[in-house]
User: What shape does this take?
Amino acid sequence: MSYAIPAVEPATVGIAGREERFPVRRIYTIGRNYAAHAAETGLGGAGGSKPGVSLKPADSVIPDGASLPFPPGTNRLEPEVEMVAAIGKGGADIPREAALDHVFGYAVGFDMIRRDIMHACIADQHSWDLCKSFDGASPMSDLAPAAEIGHLGNGAVTLTINGVERQRGDLSDLIWPVAEIVARLSALSRLEPGDLIFTGTPKGPGRVERGDRLIGEIEGIGSLTIDIV
Ligand code: MN
Assistant: This one.
């Protein structure tokens, strides 16, 4: 194989306790998956009849401990702390009962959003891709392999900004748990190894500024620290 232009290496995520890295193929994000957050968005209901899904660029991942330059075009940058499920085995029309067999592991992620761009796009009935598509928009901790931690049905999910708690929820509150999301997504397009799924955020996301330190933690998975610069 020869390429007409330089081929870009895949973005990768670390794996706790291993030298090998996890190559990223696609990033799916699930919206309004905690009822308390769904209610506060004003966008409707306890998540609606099906999960909201949007995609982010694979190369927007940045690691634990990174500095995130405040992105252009926004005055309202908001992190959403989320459990990330990483797909290790592909499939289409994956049954819910077998879905967790396709998950390689889990991480703590921030779904970073330019909220003002999101709201303007909704008002204009434009796609809101640009609110989630900028360099560094998807900070993630190293993956904790499911072979080691299992598949968590509960556990506290928290975000602190400069030491002050901003978000708190529990994995047991997910309207659509991971198995359900994998089943539904794989019915719409085949999932492949390297796909990441940000599973939604608890209530309370709000704006951050340059100089802020963000720490996300999920009980049983790990933590993620990012500085906004
Ligand atoms: Mn989100």
Observations:
- The first strand starts at residue 12 and ends at 14.
